[in-house]
Each structure stands twice: as C-alpha cells, then as structure tokens.
Amino acid sequence: MFHPDWDEGCDGCSWFVDGVADVRHLAARDVAFALVSRAPLEKLEAYKRRMGWDLPWYSSYGTTFNHDLGATVGDSEHHRLSVFVRDGERVYLTYQTFDRGVEALGTTFSLLDLVPYGRQESWEDSPPGWPQGDAYVWWRRKDEYERTGVPAPSTLR
C-alpha cells in the first residue's frame, strides 16, 4: 500500500481503507484490524493524518514481512488482505486474498455492483449505450475528488 520511496499511499489501497467500517464493530467480537506497509512510520503517520484515518498502521520497513506475505514482489507493491489468529505465542495465517478478492470486501464496489449501471467498467457485459470506461482509472483519494468536479457528500441530495 505504501512503498518506502512514495510520498503517498496507493490510490486504490487508500480508496479501500476509506471504505473500512468503524473497527469498533470488529473489536466488539475480539477482532483487531490494522494496516501494514513498507514505508517508514513517519511517512505513514503523515499520510494517515492527511486522510483522516484513525486505524492502527504499522511499518514493516526494514523487515521481510511484506515479501513473506506476497504483498511485495521484487520491489513492487501488491495489495493483500490477510487474516491471522494468535494461539498463545504462535500466529497463524488463516486467510488471504488479493486483487478482485479484496474488491468484494469493499463497501463501494459492493454497492456499485448493485446499481443499474454497475461499475461502468469496460469488462462488464452491459447493454449497448450504457456508460463504460477503463477499470480503476476513475477512483481518487478522497481529498482529490473536488479537483475532478465530484460533488462533496453534503451537497448530494
């Protein structure tokens, strides 16, 4: 989600994090949610402030954690969602998904998949004349939409 050389997080990963529900709902079931990225902690904390996130975010800078889980391949970042369980001092990886598997867990994609035009992406089988475009080029970090003419939520009625 955040390469050590980057100045901001991946736009798609950031978009996913914006849709994460209030993690207190998870904590009520003794489940923790956290982000892990390779960038140094100072960069992560600055971006977290910019985005207005209050999720726990840890730096794996200088470790092999992201490589071990397949989130970093070579020097390239790949989004992954991993689930672990702790049994005493031992931690086990119990589930992992990536690419479109992560999409199914994001509220925005789940909601778009319900509306008449869907995601409006060219891979969809849509009737002639329905709006379609390239996948993943329309999303932005939430503080970047205003520049593209997308109205603020408070103005939508």
Describe, in plain words, how this protein is organized in 3D.
The protein is of the alpha+beta class and 157 residues long. The chain has a domain at 11-97. The protein has six helices and six strands, in the order ααβαβαββββαα. It has helices spanning 11-18, 24-27, 41-51, 65-68, 100-103, 107-112, and strands at 35-37, 57-59, 72-73, 76-77, 80-87, 90-98. It has a two-stranded parallel ribbon with strand order 1-2. Strands 3-4 form a two-stranded antiparallel sheet. Strands 5-6 form a two-stranded antiparallel ribbon. β5 (80-87) and β6 (90-98) form a beta hairpin. It is globular, with a radius of gyration of 17 Å. 11% of the residues are buried. The model has no long low-confidence stretch (mean pLDDT 88).
